[in-house]
Amino acid sequence: MVMNVLNSYRSCQILSRNTLKLLSRGCTTAGNDTGKERMANSSEEAIVVEKENNITLIGINRPKVRNAIDVVTGKKLSVAIADFESDPKADVGVLHGIGGSFCSGYDLNELAGQQEIPLDIQSVVHGPEGVMGPTRRMIRKPLVCAITGYCVAGGLELALMCDLRVMEENAVLGFYNRRFGVPLIDGGTVRLPALIGLSRALDLILTGRTVTAKEALEIGLVNRVVAVGAGLGQAYNLAMSIAKYPQLCIRHDRDAAYYGTFSAQSLEEALEREASSVSVELLQEAKEGAGKFRQGIGRGGSFSGVKERKLADWEKAEMIHESKL
Fold first, then answer.
1. How far is residue 12's CA from residue 6's CA, in Å, rounded to a whole number?
2. What is the distance between the alpha carbons of residues 201 and 190, in angstroms, rounded to a whole number?
3. CB 51 within 8 A of CB 66
4. CA trace torsion 51, 8, 245, 147 (10° rounding)
5. Interatomic CA distance for residues 161 and 276, integer angstroms
6. What is the pLDDT of residue 309?
7. Which of 86, 291, 297, 320 is the most buried (most CB within 10 A)?
8. CA–CA separation, 147 vs 160, rounded Å?
9. Percentage helix, strand, coil for the chain under 3-state DSSP, each rounded to 5
10. pLDDT of amino acid 112
11. pLDDT at residue 34 in the model
């Protein structure tokens, strides 16, 4: 138990002070804010975006309703993810919830009590993006989901939209919308069978039952289970482990995997797409990597030295000064 607490604390130390304010549980750091751009700091913001070097953190901030998403918040989330995709300095994203839960799904209070279904809700339901966010398309860059507290109904569909999922050991998953006759319209019926198989997916879809972290890991629904309070920190660690690699190659291989799973009509078509989508820029990136291999970097399966560390101007000046002594 002590080691879990220490690991949770260490995982949080990689984040800046302002980022740590997003965590629902205490964790301190003495780090500075260099390389971090604060995009939104108001507690009233439904979507809070922060940037830590080449990683973008996107937080759902409606804790009073367990981060349930209404139409306005869904649109804001779509904009935030689109901005992340178009940002040339951002390579990997982390989607998380602020205040103890990831997301409890669509905010049913918006729909309840209406004499007729509002036109704006109808337009969103049948629109190209999705109610919960940009759930009806593939995100163009890797996105990691930090699952805490409740990740249910449409919130689970949001988690399925992400590439990888890190789940705290006391969090729960489930299509709780089943109880109220609210359909899955944000990709749940499409992505879940691809991830865990049709039989297991139908079990969760039809019954709406609760899924614990242990079961979620066993069936491949999540990729990591971590200690309580370590969800965001470990999701950030996972994002960093992806962001350190050459990104053209990352995106090519990721796109090919998704195309082969969801779009290709045959094995041959998937293989042809995998090869034909290799660009000159990607080959140049591979050539640079081959040069590093020739220098001995990565020998013995080592991952150190794969990405060159960018030095601050003062560090460069100090190195030049020392070389002249």
1. 10
2. 10
3. no
4. -70
5. 26
6. 57
7. 297
8. 11
9. 45, 15, 40
10. 78
11. 38
The C-alpha atoms of residue 222 and residue 219 are separated, in whole angstroms, by 8
> Contact, 164 vs 144, CB < 8 A?
yes
* 50: helix, strand or coil: strand
Cα 266 from Cα 254, distance rounded (Å): 18
Whole-model pTM: value is 0.80
Q: Terminal CA-to-CA distance of the chain, rounded, Å?
A: 51
Distance (Å, whole) CA 8 – CA 4: 6
Domain residue ranges of the chain, discontinuous segments joined by +: 47-110+127-242, 246-323
Give CB contacts under 8 A, 24+ apart, made by 280-284: 281/248, 282/248, 282/249, 282/252
Contacts 24+ apart (CB under 8 A), 267-274: none
The structure tokens 């990136």 sit at 285
- What is the DSSP code (8-state) at residue 297? T
Q: How far apart are CA 76 and CA 44, in angstroms?
A: 13
Mean pLDDT by 10 residues, the chain (325 residues): 38 45 39 41 77 95 94 94 96 96 91 69 76 93 97 97 97 95 94 97 97 97 96 96 93 95 95 93 86 74 64 63 65
Please give the Cα distance from 136 to 157 (Å, whole number).
10
Both structure tokens of 288? 């640079």
- Cα angle, residue 25 at apex, residues 23 and 31 outer, rounded to 5°: 60
Check residue 37 and give its pLDDT: 43
Q: What are phi and psi of 43, to 5 degrees?
A: -65, -10
Contact residues for 240 (Cβ-Cβ < 8 A; gap 6+): 14, 55, 92
Four-CA torsion 35, 40, 41, 44, nearest 10 degrees: -160
Residue 231, amino acid? G
Give the number of residues written for the chain: 325
